[in-house]
Amino acid sequence: MPAATGLTALGLDDTHESAYRALVSVGAVDVPDLARRLARGEHDTERALRGLERHGLAAQSSARPGRWVAAPPGVALGALLTQRRHELEQAELTAALLAEEYRAQAAEPAAHDLVEVVTGAAAVAQRFLQLQLGASEEVCALVTGDPVAVSGADNDAEEQAVGRGVRYRVVVERPVLHLPDGVAELSAALGRDERVRVVDTVPTKLVIADRVLAMVPLTASQTPEPAALVVHASGLLESLSGLFESVWRDALPLRLGTPDDPGAVVEEERDGPDGTDLEILSLLLAGLTDASVAKQLDLGLRTVQRRVKRLMELTGVTTRLQLGWHTYEKGWVARGPQA
Q1: Structural domains of the chain, with CATH
Q2: Phi-psi sector, 56: left (phi>0), alpha (psi -120 to 50), beta
Q3: Which end of the chain is more exposed for a tag (fewer CB within 10 A), N or C?
Q4: CB atoms within 10 A of CB 226
Q5: CB–CB of 246/266 below 8 Å?
Q6: What is the pTM of this model?
Q7: pLDDT tens for each residue of 163-207
Q8: What backbone phi and psi angles, to 5 degrees, belong to 214?
Q9: CA atoms of 153 and 163, how far apart (whole Å)
Q10: How confident is the model at residue 79 (pLDDT cuts 50, 70, 90)?
């Protein structure tokens, strides 16, 4: 679900917000006039005004009977904001208490508590979204070309998670590239700086959130309708994490764009960086900071940092000084003229 905008975060729907904005703009107005401005029926307009009245945002004018006026935004909206902040604080407190209670109960979990069975397409899709929305650090996934209960096209939880700083590592099997929307979805993922790799086939669909929770589907022969196992921290979860890492190591990275087709999704060569990586390395070796490199190449700072981290992983080094040495040794960037 897209993030709330305007005044919807204060509990006002679009009709309420439009009515309030109109009142602020034009001052005292009667119902027929306001209905014309909003292009709505008089009954709906009056109901919106009554709603604003309950929120303390509008009142009937005492000086001009039959007309409505807006309450001062600074006072009225400030009161609503204070109320919402209080409600959020109470919700956070409740969530913290519930989390503590859950941890206490899960300190010595019974074997049957380590795995949940989720049945039904809607339930599986909802659990998949919850895993992503609940992630705070990293989501790892193996993706096949035959989604049953979960479709990437209608999953905006992924975009929200990335917006919160959650890292994504995804391995797709090659048939995904040939699906009608496959390239478009992969382009969108790469555009969000997700790390995506490809292999001929993946052993199973799999999603792992923060290495504490995973979801793997049950096969059609095991259940008559879509179903999945949700696996909590356990030896089984560690095995699933190991499976993902094994597939990830053998997969080829995907990158976005070629000189002839910027919208294309292509496989990177396993042994070296792409053109953008080389530009980043050249500028870093010239002494520029990450921020200066990002500005020079019109990239995001986080994109530059992630690419540098990937290059360090590619070369197996732990410091940027080592990365610079490997860069020269591998011939990725030519040495400058000797003095």
Answers
A1: 1-108 (1.10.10.10), 111-267 (3.30.870.10), 275-329 (1.10.10.10)
A2: left
A3: C
A4: 20
A5: no
A6: 0.49
A7: 888 899 999 888 888 787 777 888 888 888 888 888 888 888 999
A8: -140, 160
A9: 17
A10: confident
